[in-house]
Amino acid sequence: MPVARDIMSPGAECIGANDNILEAARKLTSLGVGALPICGTDDRLKGVLTDRDVVVKVLGKNLDPQQTKAGELAQGEAVTIGADDGADEIFATMARHKVRRLPVIDGHRLVGMVALADVARALPDPQVGDLLEALSTD
């Protein structure tokens, strides 16, 4: 079975924890992605910022996207997957945390992102249905 480094999108770009949400939104747009890892000044992963976070947690709450920092939206410890973890572990982590994207780390270094679509292509059909069901229920 493939491991995360086999199915991830390599070269994920971070948004800095001190960068504002307007910068993050522009980066999401220019890269054509729905999520960006949030990295601190120590180059460690602090969380993941999604396009939904921008809309719901910033714009929806009338916060100023130029004054709100990406790091303010990082909640607790980031959920990650190791580069050598198998598709089954990715599946289990996504289902357990109800996330559709996971940063892939090698040690403490961010090496890519793995999305639900990546896992769906790597898993046998019955597991794909189980994963979609797990992510779609409360």
Automatic annotation (TrEMBL):
<keyword id="KW-0129">CBS domain</keyword>
<dbReference type="InterPro" id="IPR000644">
    <property type="entry name" value="CBS_dom"/>
</dbReference>
<feature type="domain" description="CBS">
    <location>
        <begin position="73"/>
        <end position="131"/>
    </location>
</feature>
<dbReference type="InterPro" id="IPR046342">
    <property type="entry name" value="CBS_dom_sf"/>
</dbReference>
<dbReference type="InterPro" id="IPR051257">
    <property type="entry name" value="Diverse_CBS-Domain"/>
</dbReference>
<feature type="domain" description="CBS">
    <location>
        <begin position="8"/>
        <end position="65"/>
    </location>
</feature>
<dbReference type="Pfam" id="PF00571">
    <property type="entry name" value="CBS"/>
</dbReference>
<protein>
    <submittedName>
        <fullName>CBS domain-containing protein</fullName>
    </submittedName>
</protein>
